[in-house]
Amino acid sequence: MLSATAGLRKALLAPVITALAIGGIFVGVYLAAFHSPAAHHQPLGIAASDSVAARTELSLNNEAPDAYVFYRYADAAAAHEAVTHDEVPAVLVSDHAGLRLIAAGAQGPSTISSLSAAVTQAVGHPVPVRDVRPLADGDARGLSAFYAAFGVVLAGFLFAVSSYQIAPRLALFARVASMLAFSVASGLIVALIAHTGFDALPAPYATVAVVVGLLAWATAAAAGVLLRLFGPIGMPVASVVLLILGNATSGGILPATFLPSWLAPLADVMPPAAAITGLRDAGYFHGEHVTPAMLTLTAWGVGCLAIQYILDRTAARRAHARGASTAARVVGQLSA
């Protein structure tokens, strides 16, 4: 009777507690990240005389200490090269043609508008903006890569959960084969929808398919390991790590330089951030960071599968040892 009562209590309370915890973490993380974003070490280039550059840097630092990291460029041509190769999102240029902000709109409207407002305040008058890397017509707000990545992360999470619910003891090679099929299909389908169907991701179709496929693989592998490690609480742990922290720090809504200090480091290592960086740079910035993004995603996939292999081997050895011990006891009893 007591056991039945305890079981009923657990069945009633566990879903409530789990859902409230995940919901609370989601609200807390997203509000902490986006309720009042401010720049932290935001790169900004300056191509001007030393006196103009020094005055601008001093004014910006006085207004918001530690908000910006400044990079000097020789002239407008060097500034254009830096912006179009994703070294900095914008460069303030002052030369015979006047004062202007050379910017990459592909960095996102929020980034460019915040830099434009800061520069305007620093120099004391409006500064015209020249967008040398505008967003694609099919991606007017610069959020397509984020939505694509979010959908793939969600699909990878659901794939891992379904896989472990349907076949919790499936052999690793079979699980890997299923995961690879899911990843390849995800890459091809999402690239077909986002690149070909809506023209929202200007990167080549093959690049989109590969990056998205690697993201699907990394997410499914990571979720699988968390389910394997944490058992019954693996699902909420995976949802917090991948769906909440991963997407909040992806840079799809705001760049990592606008995240609070305790969240910003995750933007360098989480799969969604790597995928969004790869998709963005492949489409707008000559593929400057595509290779590191792919390596990050590959490292997640390979690393999580390696952990899964070690866990399976360890469990198999323990099962074999228990079986041998049981057999020895049976033989001993029969001999006696």
Automatic annotation (TrEMBL):
The keyword Transmembrane helix applies. Keywords: Membrane, Transmembrane, Transmembrane helix. The chain crosses the membrane at residues 12-33, 145-164, 176-198, 204-227, 239-263, 293-311. It comes from the Bacteria. The keyword Transmembrane applies. This is ABC transporter permease. It comes from Streptomyces broussonetiae. The lineage of its organism: Bacteria, Bacillati, Actinomycetota, Actinomycetes, Kitasatosporales.
